């Protein structure tokens, strides 16, 4: 999420630009929780946001986070790296062996190649799973940061996503 202050007449309007689909989906939840809490309890709302996102809307939040993590992993690993994800070790080894079919490898070399491909597969999967957990934590922190930033902003917010005004400031 990017925040930009734009002068408009004599006042400054804060514009919030939602940078990804997760933030766009999170926005209505933010507003729902904000208005309910503000009506009943004033402006100390961060704890309420935690409750809304990670309890009341847990399923939706988990889906948002998982989708954003998947998007970021696809960006990091690209099509080649993602070929490993979702396949078994045997499938990965077989695919690797197919690349060497025409090489005429001896049985010993073939067995050695199988071992190397299996080790490579395990290494990639371990790296991927660790990266997935780090990204999950990062995305969750970014989501928390999103709603913390909301309450440090003026009441007159203009919210934009991909050039479309989601909410017009007053």
Describe the structure.
- The protein is an alpha+beta fold.
- It contains five helices and four strands; from the N terminus they run E-E-H-H-H-H-H-E-E.
- It has helices at 21-41, 46-56, 58-82, 89-98, 107-150, and strands at residues 2-8, 11-18, 157-161, 164-167.
- It has a four-stranded mixed beta sheet.
- A hairpin with a 2-residue loop joins strand 1 and strand 2.
- The longest helix has 44 residues, at 107-150.
- 15% of the residues are buried.
Total separate domains? 1
Radius of gyration: 24 Å
Q: Sum up the overall morphology in one term.
A: elongated
Helix coverage percent of residues?
Answer: 55-70%
Cα(first) to Cα(last) distance is: 20 Å
Total count of helical runs of at least 4 residues: 5
> Strand content of the residues, in percent?
5-15%
Strand order, sheet with most strands: 1-2-3-4
Show unreliable segments.
none
Decide which structural class fits the backbone: alpha+beta
Secondary-structure element series: EEHHHHHEE
The tally of strands reads 4
Overall mean pLDDT = 81
Main beta-sheet strand count, sense and barrel state:
4 strands, mixed
